[in-house]
Q: What sequence folds into this?
């Protein structure tokens, strides 16, 4: 029998208070309840990475979380990776420039994974980027352009981390 409980969370800077079904995955909650359909659901078994979102700074599989587990969390989804003025963020711009997507199904999960990595480790080298991305399956691109795009976007993350580190 399904049951709903009230949860409070911040998603892409916006606060939400919502009754969440206790059996609903966080991925479905984002898509169906909050209408943030940029998060994609592929395998629903934690394998493909398409559903990756950032919860309290960590990249997580939203298909492996239940919605009530996000109570109190600060979440970033693919919709939160654009600039405050609505233009594309550095990863999005680089993916477009390098043609790093074809069908685009994997792209939200790859962008959120890369965003979490570069936010925590702006000096991540190609080996580290490949290691972290190994959990995201892309069936179209062969990864070469994806890596090129992330390496280019890394410069923006490095610049931001240097700026935020200044007194
Ligand atoms: S849908 Fe969550 S990892 Fe595939
Ligand atoms: S762009 Fe199609 S699965 Fe990655």
A:
């Amino acid at each position: 029998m399904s049951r709903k409980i009230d949860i409070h969370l911040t998603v892409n800077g916006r606060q939400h208070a919502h009754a969440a079904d206790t059996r609903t995955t966080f991925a479905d909650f984002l898509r169906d309840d909050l209408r943030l359909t940029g998060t994609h659901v592929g395998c629903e078994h934690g394998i493909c990475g398409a559903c990756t979102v950032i919860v309290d700074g960590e990249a997580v599989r939203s298909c492996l979380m239940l919605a009530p587990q996000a109570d109190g969390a600060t979440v970033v989804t693919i919709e939160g990776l654009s600039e405050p003025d609505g233009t594309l963020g550095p990863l999005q711009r680089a993916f477009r420039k390098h043609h790093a997507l074809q069908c685009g199904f994997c792209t939200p999960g790859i962008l959120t994974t890369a965003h979490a990595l570069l936010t925590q480790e702006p000096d991540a080298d190609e080996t580290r980027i490949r290691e972290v991305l190994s959990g995201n399956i892309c069936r179209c691109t062969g990864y070469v352009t994806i890596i090129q795009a992330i390496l280019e976007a890394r410069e923006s993350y490095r610049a931001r981390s240097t700026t935020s580190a200044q007194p």
Q: What stands out?
A: Residues 144-165 form the longest helix (22 residues). The CA atoms of residues 53 and 59 lie 6 Å apart. The pocket of FE2/S2 (inorganic) cluster (ligand 2) is lined by residues 101-107, 138-141 (CB under 6 Å). The mean pLDDT is 96.
